[in-house]
Amino acid sequence: MALMSGSASSPVDKRDIVTLESVTKRFPGIVANDDIDLSIRPGEVHVLLGENGAGKSTLIGMLSGLQQPDEGRILVDGKPTQITSPRNALALGIGTVFQHMMLVPTLTVAENLLLGGPWWQTPKTEELAARVAEITSSLGITLKLSAKVSELSLGEQQQVEILRAMLRNSRLLILDESTSMLTPKGIDELGALMRRLVGQGLAVVFITHKLKEAVAFGDRISVLKLGKKVGEIPPERLRSLGEQEIIAEIVELMFGTQGADPEAATHPDHTASFAGAAPLLQVKDLAVAQTENAPGLSSISFDIRPGEILGIAGIDGNGQKQLAEALAGQRAVAGGSIWVDRTAIETLSVGARREIGLRYLTDDRLGEGTVGTFPVSINFFLKQVGAAPFWRNGVEQRGEIDARAAQLAREYDVRTPSLKTPVGRLSGGNIQKVLLARELAEGAKVVIFNKPTYGLDLANTLASRQRIRDTAARGLAVLLISTDLEELLSMCDRIAVIADGALVGTVDNVDDARTKVGRLMIGLAA
Amino acid sequence: MSIDTAPTVSATALDATSGAATRRAILHRLLMTLGPILIALIIAGCILLAVGVDPLAYYGYVLEKGLFSPLGIQQTLSRMAPLLFLAAGLIVAFRAGMWNLGGDGQFLLGAVAAAASAPVLIQFMPGWLALFCAFIIATIVAMIWSLVPALLRAYQGVNEIVTTLMMTFLGTSLANVLVKLVFRDPGTTVPQTRTLPVEDRLPRLFDTTITSGLVLGLITIIIVHLVMTRTAFGLKLRIVGANPRAAVHAGLNVSALTIAVFAISAGLAGLAGAVDIIGVQGNVRADWNPAYGLAVIPAVFLARMNGFAAIGFVFLLSVLSIGGESAARRLGVPNHFTLVLISIVLIVLALAEYVDHRYNQSRKA
């Protein structure tokens, strides 16, 4: 590594747009970034790879002016510069596309792009149209300026954000976890777009925790681990190695263990012991009415036996969330029936369905799964408020709650400074563990997992998957909704494909399942 | 046993450090509250100087009348009674994330209901029962008045800030009309309700003029605080307030809880009106509208919806309003100067909050 960084600073190289020199950033209790050196050059996609909590977001925060380093310095064009605010960062040519969309959904694309202009001037719409046309044609994307942002797909919204950064003459574009919300096709398009951007001489910093994307899109890969930069793979080396070799090298850097791609695993067969048992979850002709911003469901039928994992594959936004919510009781059902262990539940409330043993692990962990400002301990019992022994005659029994919460935190390996810490301050992986503990702890018969590993780092992804396998092995029926085909192939017994709110086919997870599911997903018969 | 001791020791150690942290936090909060109030007093003093009034004399009168004179402090404490009920109602609503700004309409309708029923009931039943029934009637009337915004919010998602504010205009007018047309005392020329004889009103505390409504108010706000922080019902309301989607996900009946919040909040506002009438005023004049409801909102905010802190701020508010009225009269300052003073306090507090936040940010950064 020392050799490589030596060659990097040689004068022959292109000048860095931004250089970080021994940057350190501390927060109470943790060192988020520890002595990090980084050079960002024009014409390169620089991938920052690391698990949740590795310090990627903090690094981005400092580059985009949200935070200031405690030690070390940031050089812009070789000059030490303080990036004091996001506005300042933009003026320096550093544009950031954050993980969560920062567009106004009710405004059109053009209006969103014009936001932030001088308030005393009439927005120059024609000028904008001309510049947008110039940029989009050079990048090979098409965008309708008159379209409302809420009508665009997430991938298109991201293009709008990239375009906005380009309009501000950004020389460095930071993409923060940009692929986490995208469909596989959207990810490929984003990859192609990044290539064209660097082709025009821009620098791109691409943050991800997915190895394959890092290898596919990056010119230079820096690996962060627990706030430290543990390694960098320069372009020459990236080009000289094969994909598998690079992945092996990164895994070595991240985990210190040599191994094959850990995202691929073969699924164990655990149905055998429960074969022949009556289905625990039966769904027949389930229908949900379409709403303004959500697709409906029509004639959904399936059943799941004890110990079985049924996967729901499909491109995001085809009714997965509606299916989960209709089963959990959060969404009104227009027709059909649902049985859990031979009890019809379609008319029951959310709470009553939970009583019977149905559990729903939501994908929206902070939006609806937890109350971010409440302590970790209370969030364990959010679905049991008022129940004994944690409440007696409606009065909170703090001792009981804290004791049980401590036990759950231990069992499910929730890492939190204290049980009083607001759950919103934990990392995504730990919030997911709180949810897993809450849903799986006791009395569960049927569990719906909606995108259980979305946004999690590798260690937490693997841990969550193991929890799901264990759940099924205990004899529960598991419905696993995921947009990650690899995940489904590695876990499920059967995979059903959802498209436009209907199940278009169900495939046994055997050798050729990948092709069959793939064909179903793109609309061909299996 | 020996296995048990180790975790216990570490747990107490943890508590000790968190105890110190809590004390520091409380000290910081006190400083962040009292400091800005002092600054606000200085700013308001400058304004007084500018209009040619000696600020020290003004503040002297405020303190003398509102706090240090025997009569003044008794008035101040009596004034607290309705304000405490209103604050309790707002704590419930605000903690549940519902902005019931219709306190004044609910207060006045409760007051009129109590003023109309108490003198009549007193003729049929023992005094304590009559007053109790008047309280109940006032509560129910105010609850019913809140039903429109509650149902609109619960089932149609209509913003309750708008509806409660509009209902408060209707409520004040309705109270006025009721006094003039329905409950008017035929024995007087002024449009007002029949006066409840002083001996039938809520008893006074010991040998003072302080109404026992103060005690009721204190008990109420403390109960409300405990319910909101220590019970399952309070937690459910706080979940609805902090994250309504999580409430749906957790299987709470958000619509029913919404209606309950409005009913409790408005009911307490109605009780506030009843306490003021049955304890102090004795009747409602048609044009009477003290606008306590709006005045209490900042106090509840400053207290961060904490019942105990709210008692302190309500006391401060009472001193300012009782003392301010008197000081204004004696020094020829407009009566509204009390409001100017309170608003300066609020603005400075908000600014201090902002500066403190920025300071924390920059210290972290």
From TrEMBL, chain B:
Where, per UniProt, does this protein localize? Cell membrane
The record, for Pfam families, names: BPD_transp_2
Please give the InterPro entries that the UniProt record associates with this protein.
Answer: ABC_transp_permease
Q: Could you tell me the superkingdom of the organism this chain comes from?
A: Bacteria
Residue ranges of the TM segments: 37-59, 80-99, 105-122, 129-155, 161-183, 204-228, 254-279, 291-317, 337-355
| Topological relation to the membrane, as annotated | Multi-pass membrane protein
Q: State the name under which the record lists this protein.
A: ABC transporter permease
- Where is it predominantly found? membrane
CDD domains, per the entry: TM_PBP1_transp_TpRbsC_like
Which species does this protein come from? Answer: Mesorhizobium denitrificans
Signal sequence interval, chain numbering: none
Recall the GO molecular function terms of this protein's record.
transmembrane transporter activity
| Keywords per UniProt | Cell membrane, Membrane, Transmembrane, Transmembrane helix
| Cellular component terms per the entry's GO annotation | plasma membrane
